[in-house]
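Example for tutorial group B:
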C-alpha cells in the first residue's frame, strides 16, 4: 500500500500543477523557438574551362600516396618532379587528354633510409624502372566543375586502368606569367600489388590512396599574343 501511494503521488502533483495553468499548452507553443530552415545542400561551383595545351608545373604539383602501416599509422610519400601535359577542349571535353611522367628520382617519403628502400627491388626497382607513367584513355564531364579521367597507369612494366575523380579548381591568366593557367585536384585508390610493389601486404595495406594537386600553364610558344 505504501509503495502504491508513493507511485501515485507524483501523478497527483503533476495533475494539480496542470490545473493551475490552464493556458500552458498555448504558452508553450508560443515560447517554442521557430524551426530553423533546413540548410541548403552545397552545390558544386561550375568552372569555365579554357581550351589549350597546358604544361604541368612541377613546382606546384604534388602526387601524394598514403597507406596504412600495420594498423598503427598512415604514412605518405610524395612523387615530385612531375612532368606532363594536359590538353583541355572546352567545346568537347571528351577530346581532352592527360599524359604524366613520374620520375622515381623525385620520390620523397620524408625519411631518407625509407626512400632508398622504396627505390630498391623490394618495391619500385628504380634502377631498372626509373619512371612511372599515366596516359588517359577517356575524359568525361562528371558534374559542375568535375571530371572523370580514366587512364593507364604503368609501374615496373605493369599497366592497369585507373580512374581519377577530378576537381577543376580554376582557369585564368597566370598573374606572373601572363599566360592561360589551370589548376586541378584529383583522387584515386589503387592496389600496389597490381603493379609489382606489393611487398609486406596485407600487414602494410595493399590499398594506396592517391591525392593529386597540380597547376599547369599554356606553353609560351602556344599562348595567344598579348594585345
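The residue assignment follows.
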Amino acid at each position: 500500500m505504501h509503495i502504491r501511494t508513493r507511485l501515485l503521488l507524483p501523478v497527483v502533483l503533476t495533475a494539480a500543477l496542470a490545473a493551475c495553468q490552464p493556458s500552458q499548452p498555448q504558452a508553450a507553443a508560443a515560447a517554442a523557438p521557430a524551426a530553423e530552415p533546413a540548410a541548403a545542400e552545397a552545390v558544386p561551383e561550375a568552372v569555365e574551362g579554357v581550351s589549350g595545351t597546358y604544361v604541368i608545373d612541377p613546382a606546384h604539383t604534388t602526387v601524394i600516396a598514403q597507406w596504412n602501416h600495420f594498423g598503427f599509422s598512415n604514412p605518405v610519400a610524395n612523387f615530385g618532379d612531375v612532368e606532363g601535359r594536359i590538353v583541355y577542349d572546352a567545346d568537347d571535353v571528351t577530346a581532352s587528354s592527360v599524359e604524366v611522367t613520374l620520375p622515381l628520382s623525385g620520390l620523397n617519403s620524408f625519411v631518407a633510409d625509407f626512400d632508398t628502400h622504396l627505390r630498391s627491388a623490394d618495391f619500385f626497382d628504380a634502377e631498372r624502372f626509373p619512371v612511372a607513367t599515366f596516359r588517359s584513355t577517356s575524359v568525361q564531364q562528371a558534374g559542375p566543375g568535375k571530371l572523370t579521367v580514366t587512364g593507364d597507369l604503368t609501374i615496373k612494366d605493369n599497366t592497369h586502368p585507373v580512374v581519377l575523380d577530378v576537381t577543376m579548381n580554376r582557369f585564368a591568366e597566370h598573374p606572373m606569367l601572363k599566360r592561360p593557367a589551370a589548376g586541378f585536384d584529383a583522387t584515386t585508390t589503387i592496389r600496389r600489388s597490381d603493379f609489382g610493389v606489393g611487398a609486406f601486404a596485407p600487414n602494410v595495406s595493399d590499398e594506396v590512396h592517391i591525392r593529386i594537386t597540380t597547376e599547369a600553364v599554356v606553353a609560351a610558344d602556344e599562348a595567344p599574343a598579348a594585345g
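The chain has one domain: 52-218. Compare this with the pattern of hydrophobic and polar residues in the output above.
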